[in-house]
Structures
1.
Amino acid sequence: MKEFLKRKNIVISAKRYGIDALGAMAQGLFASLLIGTILNTLGTQLGIPVLSACGGYASAMSGPAMAIAIGYALQAPPLVLFSLATVGYAANALGSTTLSGGSGAGGPLAVLFIAVIAAECGKAVSKETKVDILVTPLVTILIGVGLAALIAPALGTAASSVGSVIMWATDLQPFLMGIVVSVVIGMALTLPISSAAICAALGLTGLAGGAAVAGCCAQMIGFAVMSFKENKWGGLVSQGIGTSMLQMGNIVKNPRIWIPPIITSAITGPIATCIFHLQMNDPASAVASGMGTCGLVGQIGVYAGWVADVAAGTKAAITAMDWIGLILISFVLPAVLTPLIAMPFRKAGWIKDGDMKLQ
């Protein structure tokens, strides 16, 4: 069995499924649902129908995009990879419902579990018969769609329940949960896993989504400014609108460099929830809650929520205070607080010059 799995490149490990597949799923979400949301927002605000149409098509393909991305991360052969489009569509559609038939948030979570299983089963039979062009797609699609029918609604129910509990707790205790959500999601963004995929799988919106945005921004802008001496403008851009994950190698060498951004996220999280009431109110932008300042996706998601609220009549208008809160939480506070918090660490010798140098 070990030789068979090795020959088929089936690696059963936490890294392969929890890091590689999860990270790829986030990229699939970004290239479909997230880009679709951005295009739709731009099209609506600028009065360009073709952008809104493109956004609608992109968002509709989020399931296939996630599944194909997962298959790519698992190094699936072509026939398996192409067949995962159907699997992703079915898993996302069925995972977006609950066992009671209501609307759920478990589409991405269902795609992750089901696409992994379908891809590995497809890889197992790939090129094992003389009619591979029939057998491999049949096995991949039948197993994937069958699993989607069996477990996707349950996953949708579970994801919605967990996400609802987090959002309910944040509404009930915005200070405490603002800290917890901001710190946890912010750390997930810097770790080699996907904070965006986690937020999407749980459908993390509302105040909890705002706290998640705060935590991610604290990590990205915090590391970018704190390491400016070592990395200059290139590091500022690559971390500030790219990802703080670039510092993961340095964190392994000296974990203390991670403390200032974490403390910053613990400060900005409750400020976002208690003072500015920062929310991610567009359900389609739950993935943006875990993106921070990456391509300014988090900020665009918040803005899309404002627009949706105004259109629904639950918000009178987008105010100056909204913009002030978004700019402070996303950019100003992380840029100011993180270096200040790092100063005593530098004086104590816990953080030294070169500790955050990007290779």
2.
Amino acid sequence: MRLDDRLGRPLHDLRVSVTDRCNFRCVYCMPKEVFGHDFRFLERNELLTFEETARLVRLFLAAGVEKVRLTGGEPLVRRDLERLVELIAPMPGLRDLTLTTNGSLLAQKARPLADAGLRRVTVSLDSLDDDVFRRMNDVDFPVGRVLDGIAAAEAAGLAPIKINMVVRRGMNEESVLPMARFFAQRGHILRFIEYMDVGHSNGWRLDDVVPAERIVAMIDAEMPLEPVPANYPGEVADRWRYRDGDGEVGVIASVTQPFCRDCTRARLSAEGELYTCLFAVSGHDLRAPLRDGEGDEALAARIAAIWGARTDRYSEQRSAETAALPKVEMSRIGG
């Protein structure tokens, strides 16, 4: 089954947030000035249960989704997450089940997740410089423990491992080349992400964006690159490989090179809200009809109607006015 939106974009990827909580306070996502000790996170009864999440994932797979990514917040702070992986992993139609994490708990969790059926992980890591990394995560977490988590994931077979680095001017752009050098030697796929105006609390300014073109030029000057075709239509990263054949990098340029026309991603929040864009102002409640006893056929029709009405093109239409809108926070729906 293929389900298209109003611009002809098929539903292909589903990102599932399992919690709005995180043990980091990264300055571009959950600044502690906003997400402090008195911030109200979702209560446990507000979260979808693993069984509710699995039921919805099954309906999305029937609607054409092939890739499912578990996100947060930080998904590994959700207790017993491997139970959800066990529920989703054997579902018909699923071609890829992966997880995005800050890596802080990955050393302990990699093996149980792999045993439960998880196939890959993406680790967010914004610098190898310990001082820079601690400033960015803003909870004084050492980079060495994230590297331990990456090693554990590799040992557990959760590969290929992708490393995501958000690049923010004046904060960590000097870490671009050291990151490229380090991961080119280890066979992991490094992806650089332009600092985006996700949510409404990170103080985003266009001046803080380091353009993807600049990032590629920085690397290419020392480690020559050549472009690589996309793996599939709608892939978010532009891919480059080192001309010496040793690894590849990607750049995600939502700000300077929008890819809305190829976007095939839906996002399900931890409390059961369906979002059709990373930059959405509001979502569509699936938890209430699910808990009110709505059957699979009606829920599937509801999902189809939401996606079928989709016209989102935020990054292509970005302006000072849209950037100032009170959009949903990335910590609620993942990246």
3.
Amino acid sequence: MALTEMAIKHLKAKSKLYRVSDGDGLCLEITPAGGKNWRWRYYYQGKEQMLALGKYRFYATG
């Protein structure tokens, strides 16, 4: 299921780091401090890898 902006805004920090999947290896990592980082999980030469894509930032419009 694709993550919507509203769903991401409602994700709360927990005592341990956790990830919420967006599909096809893309996930949002939520840190105990409340940071939200995009990660992409993929395979290279048969080994699982994870690439950091950057922070999730919400930009208010209006």
